[in-house]
């Protein structure tokens, strides 16, 4: 039996310095694994390990079953720090934690951080008994524990920050996802609305400090909840499709990893998926791998349209446009801003328009804030846009017609 239970992946990122030390310890004692578990809510949660942790059921974030008992046994010196025959020992002492972990030999010590606060447990395990393991090795374990003290202070802080972030994001997911605002995507010449983009909106309260939408998604990546948060937002967004004015499509955002892993399964049984546009967002350097190309093909077969978000920025490489051949290319607002006065921006936009023509895609310009930006986009061959000039994001599903409709397009008079 594996002596661990899932605790919901509250883990810190692997810290090189600490894992190196763990590996030194493991090799010195000739053990299968050396690991660090944090003492939290009267439980031991595995954080990092070096060596073959998985054969003991050790995964970062997992709680050691009966770990509380084990921790106190070690703390109160009720069990020896080092044992070459833990099988016999566990039986004699009825130590269920050791028994369940299937440990033949172990060395372990409790840890305090640089402020002398209890931190957790440092332990080494082998499946086989190891009669040559000597009491002397206890000194080595202590030596490593002393070495670790200062790093643990950093680790604790990192852990506290991460677990707060993890809880805030979990709360949002459990409450049914972030709030939503809808921003119209309109024809630049007539102002006619063709679609709305669902934008996640977080209430500042749930996170403690105020974070932007971008920061929420970046934090979700940091703690490994990116896909879950993406899906929670998408679930909430697609629920409004039946209430959208007829003919309007709905654009939702998804990170490449969500697209490559779970999105197909989610979309498969979705009614109205022919009204759905999936915008593949990008906030880290990433090259579309074969799994993304496959997943995009699958989504398209299901009737969903694919957009590449933020095109023209460093994040959304041209390679991705060529590989994924999206139905829609969304020009990032950094290209839109000041396009009316910048020939370089116009040239890049014209390039994207030409590319879209080749792959049979539509271009949408994001972040249009002025009439002159709209006009410049139209002259560059872009027919659709989004931005404050065309319509603000709003909780309402019925987009308001832009104020300029009927005023007469100034761009006709342009040279
Ligand atoms: O990454 P994505 O393009 O999905 O992000 C869109 C974000 O840009 C939203 O948060 C939205 O509120 C914001 N936005 C929409 N239109 C404009 C605009 O005209 N100007 C600026 N500065 N931001 C905009
Ligand atoms: Mn978007």
Automatic annotation (TrEMBL):
CDD domains: EAL
Segments forming domain EAL: 162-407
A single GO molecular function term of this UniProt record: cyclic-guanylate-specific phosphodiesterase activity
Domain of life, source organism: Bacteria
PROSITE patterns on file: EAL
Pfam families reported for this sequence: EAL, GAF
UniProt xrefs under PANTHER family: CYCLIC DI-GMP PHOSPHODIESTERASE PDEF, SIGNALING PROTEIN
Name of the molecule in the record: Diguanylate phosphodiesterase with GAF sensor(S)
Organism in which the protein naturally occurs: Pseudofrankia inefficax (strain DSM 45817 / CECT 9037 / DDB 130130 / EuI1c)
